[in-house]
Amino acid sequence: MNPSATLRFRRWTALVFLAWACLALVHNVLAHYIRPPAPEWPLEIAGVGGVSIVQATSPEAARKGIRPGDRLVAFDGEPLGSWRSQGRLALAVGQTNLYTIEKPGGRQIEVELEPQPPGSIGPVSMILQLAILGVGLVYLTIGIAVWRSRPGRVEAWALLLFCSTMATALFTAVRADNIPWSYPRTILNGPLLGATAFHLFTTYPFEPRWIVRHRRTQLVPYLMAAVTGLLFFAQLPLGLPAQLAPTLSFALGLGFAAAGLGSLVVERRREHDTDVTARADVMLIGALVSFVPVLLVLTAQYFMRTTLPLYYTMLWLFVFPLAVAYGILRRNLFDIRGAARSSVAYGLASVVITGVYAVLIAFSDALIASFEVNTRSPAFQVGFLFFAILLFNPIRNSLQRVVDRTFDRDRATYRQAVREISEAMVSMLSLREIGDRILIALTDTMGVERAMVLMLDDDERVLRPTAWRGDWDSASLGTEIPASHPIWKHLWMRREELTRRDFDDEPDPEARESCRDVFDTLEMEILVPILFGVDLLGVIAVGRKITGERLGVDDRQLLRTLANQSAIAIENAQAYDEIAKLNETLEARVEERTRELHQTQQQLVQSEKMKSLGQLVAGVAHELNNPIGFVHANLQLMNDYVAKLLAAEKGSPEAQRAQAAIGKLLSRSQEGTNRVKQIVLDLKTFSRMDQTEVQEVDLHEEIDRTLTLMEPRLKDAITVERRYETLPRVRCNAGQLNQVFMNLLMNACDALEEQGGGTIRISSRLHGDGVRLEFEDDGPGMPPDVQGRIFDPFFTTKEPGKGTGLGLSMSHQIIERHGGRMVVSSEPGTGSRFIIDLPVDATPTEG
Q: Is 0.85 surpassed by the pTM of this model?
């Protein structure tokens, strides 16, 4: 049968079983809550395997000798199974019915009884019956919910079939005497319930090997249930005993359920997968709590004709479907065996504490009574009880600590391990060391057989083993999980630990098997991702425990903590490696960057200097043009005078006048060429590139040279006043200081030109062990906020394109490198003053 046909078959059978349960529910609701009230039976009976045991009687029945424990054999002269097999009920108010009763010794009596009037059932019985209906609805709801959540899983289908038949049994069992066709439905549902129980126990949480080899074996109980149904309907025509079908139904139902449960117990002992065994444990405990009380009561009723409260035991039946549904839907189960052990321990401790309290109080009461104290006083009793509790509290605390240490030992050990790991990983800077520390915690603290840490190779985007403990073969140690592997996606997207069972719901068969192969190759129980932010840094692979126990909640919590601590440690280690690599080349990179910055600074200084020169080009050209034009005119005149001199006679007055004129022209032409030479020299001195040239210079000459170059700008209503005092020669870099003087004078000219002219005053004097230069103008001045930023790089108050904001910043740096200082003093409307202090030996520093 192909997968689609199998799924269709399961859907149809599920619908049939659901319809069977819904039919029983509808019959029960119609009979008891919708139709008019019907007469009640004078006897309350419980049917077990075709044997109807009297549980309670009406007052009339009791007076006529019917007792609980008697057996109801026939009704109105017909065997009990006969009339019920036909679905006939002959109860009417005021009309008697004949009941054939069999006493425990085998003696039979016939008693005529009238039915009870409608509504005679007590409130307690009504509440119990409604509660049992609720349990049936729980079965039906859980079966449907699990089937809808896992529609393709065979265990969900098996659970739905079982829940449907169990719900049918519960719906039919409540006041079955008033429900039409309840007896036939009970007979038919008995073996069917056993068949579905056998089906479920041999399907979940694993299929036994003999079922896998002979899968048709699961059909045998269903076929036997069908045969029982045929025998039931054929008993009258064939003359079969009336008790044959009921007895067979009870035996088959109980036998198949016991066979399935026994198979689960046997196979669970052979299973080594701790996750599967944990689910089997949950299922077995659920079956123990739910069915054992009911089976004990039914067995006692069948063989010993007891009247035990069957309805009360049926209320616990809801535990089983909850346990199975929890195992099917939940990926990670709690440690049920550990919880059971600790619960028993705490229960025993509570009993011991309560007993000691009781003994203490009883002894104290007897002791106080001997002194004839009124112990019946409420105040005395409350006070004494408080004193007893206070006195016994230290003993109770000690007993509590003993229980905690005994059954919470692993948790305390894990907490200690987490503290040690957290402290150790702070200082770990090696990935290998981190992996080894994780493995120590897993093998020594958790007690696993073997474990492995796989780290990410970021270049190749693949997870590779970097550390391991335990017995590994070469194939396992060569395992690689590339980023394209489906398990990588599951680890990264789910962001939680994974087991092999987590891939049962994977719709892609190829991806499912690929993920399972990783677990099978590594023989791992669980994979825990090491995540940092959105990055998958590695995986912790954990094998089985040496004790054979499954990994519980505390184990998983420890693994998650290890993964989180490892992620932080790995990030720290990787950051440390990056820093170490950077430090290896840091010195060379710093030197290279310093050299680049120095070159850039020199280029900026030279660029600013050439910019200043560019602003003087027009004026300098004018200054050069005047003497050159003058010399050119003199040469033309000299040419005329030379011609006249050659034409005149030697010693004649004409020759003498020509010689005198030529001499004057030569003298004036020499003055012009000297002027040109000086201008060219000043330009060359100002713009020289040799920044390392240090010499003793006259600062006045340097300032005058700068003024000479700026003379064209100083002719436009700008007056320069020089107030020089005698200064010593200063050892400095004249070219750099000329740059400072040029910047200050150019800024002063710009400020004065805005107001149509003014005066620049330059003064010099001795100041302490050095010299002081002051450049002052009577321009518009500067506000305080501008003064605070005037030496900042790229700060300028000029319009875009007219200033770079580097002039004063570079000037300030040049003065500081010469060991001096430069400050500004200005107020709006009163002009600006720049003060420069320099030492006599102002040899500039590098930088």
A: no
